[in-house]
Design a protein that fits this description.
This protein has about 625 residues and is an alpha/beta fold. It folds into three domains: about 210 residues, Thiamin diphosphate (ThDP)-binding fold, Pyr/PP domains (Rossmann fold, 3-Layer(aba) Sandwich), CATH 3.40.50; about 150 residues, Rossmann fold (3-Layer(aba) Sandwich), CATH 3.40.50.1220; about 210 residues, Thiamin diphosphate (ThDP)-binding fold, Pyr/PP domains (Rossmann fold, 3-Layer(aba) Sandwich). It is about 40% helix and about 15% strand. The strands form five sheets. Strands 5-4-6-7-9-8 form a six-stranded parallel beta sheet, sandwiched between helices. A six-stranded parallel beta sheet has the order 14-13-12-15-16-17. Helix 6 links the parallel strand 8 and strand 9. The radius of gyration is 25 Å and the shape is globular.
Length: about 625
């Protein structure tokens, strides 16, 4: 296509967004950028806002209430599509832009794509200091948007329209590259947004982005094969990279062909059917004792698509000190960690090649039996927790998860992010059928944001995840599980979801405080302080000041099921079933409010390093954990 077209910078950017396509796992082509979350202000309403209005039929714009919330919803959309689609979030200058920095940090930590378009101050500097501008005495070229540099995979400030010609290909590269994937920030000065330029028509030709599948180096692969052939007790660790590669079937085929037990990380959860004979459970601090016992006994660990976060490795005390660690990762940065034997490559293709190169080799069948017996013991423990009662008769977190688990099918989707609920989901969830073959998605049905553990994500993320899943799993339903602390931190997007007609269920577990941090505090011997409402300063500590969560959620346009404090599991189950039905019928969020016991948890018994003062009783176990950690390192 030859010739040019005269457009503003904002118009050119929007037209380019519309032209980008993405290929799903089944070969289906969809929009790479399916929509925009926006809160307008003087920094973006006339430039970018006008361009978005002109394109509103092909690039929908959704109105939000809070910039952090909408950006988190955008990230949840990306994860729900296995990083195949990227939502855009735009804000005005100053506070609106800074509200998105936390979301950028979450996307960066979790290797998730999002395109953030904050407005910026005038490049002409003629009206300086403009409203909401923070002046930097020694550097007038700096604005608050430079705060994004620390949490961006790619950052640029567009000061000339023609810069888009070189910048936008890099934007697409970062957002779709498995090794570099993460948040992209384009700061858009408001005068530049409306500046015109003759852009080449070729810039707006439809472009399809396919996930590149790098094959492993032959020498690295051969060395990994040699290490695995020498293993007596090998263990396969399935991480988020397996999900994003669409390699769940290949991971399971590898395990079955060679008799290797398999465990899942937080990001790789729900890729393995729970009852599979080789499934050892969820690995790590908030996982299952069964998986942790297997990790401690393994002599070779094949870690695929994981960055081996401390919650996965139990702060590097979860593996034997003489374990041989083989990592497969699309990003060399992650593959080489802790002096691992690194294989850089796509998870799916590398697993296929490993399976073929290891032909004829299998692990000791007794080792596979250990995995089955360990998981059976953990299942029995979880069954007891689900059937038991809390000291005060209240519902437990395990019971809440059990209710949601029992009602969920392969098209449904659950998510959480902070507090104690991720541990309940990671350790206690039982995955049924994993639908991947012939599907446009990986088959994963869980989003545990435990890379950044951002409070509030789990309240707003269902909005974005439900929008995405409606396209690929129209018969399913999204459920977010969280506590009262997360709800109070970021609840305004419940109104956005209700306003935009997006159905999901939110399970709000009221435990009267930040219970999981209270647990960490008191388990180390410290006094309970400033976490539970009863331990906080103010007259409300006596219980006289409490939020009516049901009334509040109802005021935001949500349907509400308020479960009585004296209710049991069956009453909760009935309320959740009603919420699912009403959310679908009325096409808006349904919130289930229930009261949960604050200190009855599902414990895996693993060690996690946190700084413990010598004056506290927990210091002794801290010193023991550090000794184990140092022996491994």
């Amino acid at each position: 296509m030859t010739g040019t077209i005269r457009l503003t910078t904002a118009q050119a950017l929007v037209r380019w967004l519309v032209a980008q396509r993405s290929e799903l796992l089944d070969g289906t082509q969809v929009s790479l950028f399916p929509g925009v979350f926006a809160i307008f202000g003087h920094g973006n309403v006339l430039g970018l806002g006008t361009a978005l209005h002109e394109a509103r039929e092909v690039l929908p714009t959704w109105r939000a209430q809070n910039e952090q919330g909408m950006a988190l919803a955008a990230i949840a959309y990306a994860r729900a599509t296995d990083r195949r689609q990227v939502m855009v979030a735009t804000s005005s200058v100053g506070p609106g832009a800074l509200n998105m920095v936390t979301a950028a940090g979450l996307a960066h930590a979790n290797r998730l794509p999002v395109l953030l378009l904050p407005g910026d101050t005038f490049t002409s500097r003629a009206p300086d200091p403009v409203l909401q501008q923070v002046e930097h005495f020694g550097d007038p070229s700096t604005s608050v948007n430079d705060s994004f540099r620390a949490v961006s995979r790619y950052f640029d400030r567009i000061t000339r329209p023609e810069q888009l010609l070189s910048t936008l290909p890099q934007v697409a590269r970062v957002l779709t590259d498995p090794a570099d994937c993460g948040p992209v920030v384009l700061a858009l000065p408001q005068d530049v947004q409306v500046e015109q330029f003759d852009f080449p028509l070729s810039m707006f030709e439809p472009t399809v982005h396919r996930v590149p599948r790098q094959r492993p180096d032959r020498t690295d692969l051969a060395e990994a094969v040699a290490t695995l052939r020498g293993a007596e007790r090998p263990l396969l660790v399935v991480g988020g990279g397996v999900r994003y590669s669409g390699a769940a079937a290949e991971a399971l085929a590898f395990a079955e062909t060679h008799g290797v037990p398999v465990v899942e990380t937080v990001a790789g959860r729900t890729l393995v059917p729970h009852d599979h004979r080789l499934h050892g459970g969820a690995l790590g601090i908030i996982g299952a004792t069964s998986a942790n016992n297997l990790a401690a006994a393994a002599d070779v660990v094949l870690a695929v698509g994981t960055r081996l976060q401390d919650f996965t490795t139990s702060s590097w005390t979860g593996f034997a000190s003489d374990v041989r660690l083989v990592t497969v990762n699309a990003a060399r940065f992650d593959a080489v960690k802790h002096s691992a034997q690194a294989v850089v490559g796509d998870a799916r293709e590398t697993l296929v090649e490993l399976t073929a190169e290891l032909a004829g080799w299998t692990a000791d069948p007794d080792w596979a039996d250990v995995a089955s017996s360990q998981r059976a013991a953990w299942d029995a423990h979880v069954d007891e927790l689900r059937a038991g009662t809390a000291p005060d008769g209240a519902l437990t977190y395990a019971q809440v998860v059990g209710v949601v688990n029992d009602a969920s099918g392969p098209d449904d989707y659950v998510l959480s992010a902070s507090g104690g609920m991720p541990g309940e989901l990671h350790g206690g969830w039982r995955t049924g059928i994993v639908k991947q073959e012939g599907s446009s998605t990986s088959g994963a049905t869980m989003d545990l944001e435990y890379g950044f553990s951002c409070m509030g994500y789990e309240v707003v993320a269902p909005w974005g995840a439900a929008m995405a899943r409606a396209q690929t799993h129209p018969g399913g339903l999204v459920t977010g599980l969280f506590g009262d602390g997360s709800y109070l931190m970021l609840n305004s997007e419940l109104y956005s979801a209700a306003f935009s007609g997006v159905p999901f269920v939110a399970m709000l577990c009221d435990n009267s405080g930040f219970a999981v941090i209270h647990r960490l505090q008191t388990n180390q011997g410290a006094e309970g302080f400033n976490n539970m409402l009863a331990d906080s300063r103010g007259p409300g500590a006596d219980g006289s000041v409490h939020v009516d969560f049901a009334a509040h959620a109802r005021s935001l346009g949500c349907l509400v099921e308020d479960v009585p404090a004296s209710a049991g599991v069956e009453e909760l189950r009935a309320a959740y079933d009603r919420a699912r039905a009403s959310a679908r019928e009325h096409q808006r969020p349904a919130v289930v409010v229930c009261r949960t016991h604050s200190s009855t948890w599902t414990e895996a018994g693993a060690w996690w390093e946190t700084g413990v003062p010598e004056s506290l009783s927990g210091r002794a176990s801290y010193d023991e954990g550090k000794a184990d950690q140092l022996r491994w390192l």
